[in-house]
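#struct-pred
JK: can someone run the complex with 4'-deoxy-4'-aminopyridoxal-5'-phosphate? inputs below
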Amino acid sequence: MKRSYIREILDSINENTISFAGGLPNKKLFPLKQIKQVSLKVLENPDSLQYSQSQGLEKLREEIANIYTNKFNFKTNKEEILITTGSQQAFDIILKAFTRDEIIVQSPSYVGAIGAFKALKLKINSFEKINQLKNTLKQSNILYLMSDFQNPNTRSYTKKERITIEQILKTKSSILIEDGAYSFLSFDGNISQAISSNYNNSFHLGTFSKIIAPGLRVGWIRAKKENIQKILFAKEALDLHTSTLNQMIICEYLNTYNLEKHLKIIREDYYKRMIFLSKCFKKFMPYFNFELPKGGMFIYGKFKNIDTMNLAKRMQKFNIAFVPATVFYHDERRSNEARFNFTNLSYRQMLVGIKKIAKFIEKI
Ligand code: PMP
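RT: done, structure tokens with the ligand placed:
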């Protein structure tokens, strides 16, 4: 089993590397003081270090259910939530409980999901345009997609596209895994209606990684109660439950502070960074073609005739990292697309990094 190229890049990064590679949130925006304060409070209760329910703490499930009902316009109760150790764990939990012939993914798709599906030895197929989905998807399949600010290509489905996908799902009765990792990170603060809210045989994934802190490893699965009951055994088998302490910290944070206020800070900061990086591209690499993202953490674009895997490997020697799109395709096809993260570098590093890549390209 090959390791993910992104993990390899992250491992090779040192303090001198300018890395556009990972999907790391900006640590300066972590609510460090607030987390410290609520952690101390939580630690006054010895239950914070005790074993707890596999489905997750009831209070936290209630908080998440309220977020769905009030912010996602997706009526949800606490029995419909299962807390996971990062949303990455959701892939293992769901796919161990629901085995299917084939999993259908967007092309390109989230590399961590592709890695999880390959580790589970699933057959993977992909679709690019929605009209291809009609022919590709079968009843015996699972469909995995991101409706909002897709990783890597940052696109979101329109209302019309969501309805088309919902209709296709309804004719095939396949299982839907809808990953909402970036759903909160729209620059305009709006949250779109999840496809899952109109399709019952679905698992909607969420995470606090991009909006509070990834190191706490707290994510969740939202599904109808019957399906949550069906996947619980797989969660239990993996790790009994997600860290009680971390769940209590998140829960106390949500109770004490205003998440919406924190989200506003993140959205505004990321928007400015995205605009800055896009200007660097326009100035120094006008031949790199991309759409301005409306949310998320990446700029994804296309060179005319550059194999980005080759370029990424060569740039690594100059201590610059970005992700060549080959890794986002389940068949690892050659690609001239690439993904650049803008959330984690300083403005100066972004400028220096893009200038250096441009200079290198001019010489080849
Ligand atoms: N889904 C997507 C689309 C992601 O980009 C990520 C993280 N990069 C995850 C899931 C997993 O995140 P976590 O396990 O930290 O919740």
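RT: quick notes.
Residues 259-284 form the longest helix (26 residues).
The domain at 5-30+261-363 is CATH 3.90.1150.10 (Aspartate Aminotransferase, domain 1).
JK: thanks, will look after standup
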